[in-house]
UniProtKB/TrEMBL annotation:
It holds the Pfam family Aminotran_4. This is Probable branched-chain-amino-acid aminotransferase. It comes from Hoeflea algicola. InterPro entries: Aminotrans_IV (IPR001544), Aminotrans_IV_CS (IPR018300), Aminotransferase-like (IPR036038), BCAT-like_C (IPR043132), BCAT-like_N (IPR043131), Class-IV_PLP-Dep_Aminotrnsfr (IPR050571). Its EC number is 2.6.1.42. GO terms for molecular function: D-alanine-2-oxoglutarate aminotransferase activity. PANTHER family: AMINO-ACID AMINOTRANSFERASE, AMINODEOXYCHORISMATE LYASE.
């Protein structure tokens, strides 16, 4: 049984409790982060903490824990649960108070929950076989740049992908791809440049996206930050997704059209290798 963290205490997962009046539960009034662990060490941790602060700021949520404490809690959970490879999930909500749409943030104490999930991240089926993607309309709210726990649409999107024989969905708004249900979307042009849409309130500023773009700039892979359509993606040389839990995930088909011969492409696999090597050097 896992040990989880709830509001200052380390407890067995079946003894952990949160109030039924928690605004995260009643209003989706919560934010989260998912940080990868490889070899017992955290990947891109400072960037995840910085984004958590940004999400809290954007929602006017109090932040009552220090960055040092956050790192210590992550490390304690990794150690207590013997995580070699997996993720640490962190959720912070505005807190618990009798149900009312209006709230006084100052009267609320944020709820903080963290737990671990053990799972392979480096040697995975997705990395070897790639993922099939289908496109769906992006029906989410207008502040997708904030990492809130309002994940019903992405969850239903993944279920629709599954029912259509695919692994995940890319969302389309105003004729262009925004992002994957839980990842950022990239294509590789026939000339070998990587393309991803610019940051805006329509997408999450992915930590893996940013790191990959930094590493690519250093190794000289051309990066084009611009919008692209599903039609352009279907005709691309390769495609892939980035996220903390998949790293760089090859896409081998989009809406039934095969890319790179239905196998992970060489540029994608090179970027995946580079991302894993570079981020492991910086893991803490
Ligand atoms: N999802 N876009 C969306 C909508 C996401 O939910 C995520 C992450 C990303 C990638 O961001 P990052 O590289 O920082 O993980 C992009 C996490 C992994 C999740 O919900 O499990």
């Amino acid at each position: 049984m896992r040990t989880v963290y709830v509001n200052g205490a380390y407890v067995p997962e079946n003894e952990a409790t949160v109030s039924v009046f928690d605004r995260g539960f009643l209003f989706g009034d919560g934010i989260y982060e998912v940080a990868a662990v490889v070899g017992g060490k955290l990947i891109d941790f400072p960037a995840h903490t910085a984004r958590l602060h940004r999400s809290a700021n954007e929602l006017g949520m109090r932040f009552t824990v220090s960055d040092e404490e956050l790192l210590a809690i992550h490390r304690e959970l990794i150690s207590r649960n013997g995580v070699d490879e997996g993720v640490v999930y962190l959720q912070m909500t505005r807190g618990a108070i009798d149900r009312d749409f209006m709230f006084d943030t100052e009267k609320l104490t944020p709820t903080l929950v963290l737990f671990t999930q053990n799972r392979p991240l480096v040697d995975t089926g997705v990395a070897k076989a790639g993922m099939k993607i289908v496109s769906i309309p992006d029906l989410r709210w207008g502040r997708c740049d904030i990492k809130t726990v309002q994940l019903l649409y992405p969850s239903l999107g993944k279920m629709e992908a599954k029912s259509r024989g695919a692994d995940d969905a890319w969302m389309v708004r105003d004729g262009v791809v925004t992002e994957g249900t839980s990842n950022n979307a990239f294509i590789v042009t026939q000339e070998g440049a990587i393309v991803t849409r610019p940051l805006s309130p329509s997408i999450l500023p992915g930590i893996t996206r940013a790191a990959l773009m930094d590493y690519s700039a250093v190794s000289g892979t051309p990066v084009e930050e611009r919008e692209f359509t599903i039609e352009e993606a279907r005709n691309a040389a390769e495609a892939f997704i980035t996220s903390a839990s998949v790293f760089v995930g090859p896409v081998v088909s989009i809406d039934g059209v095969e890319l790179s011969g239905g196998k992970p492409g060489p540029v994608t696999l090179g970027l995946r290798k580079q991302y894993i090597e570079e981020s492991l050097k910086r893991a803490i």
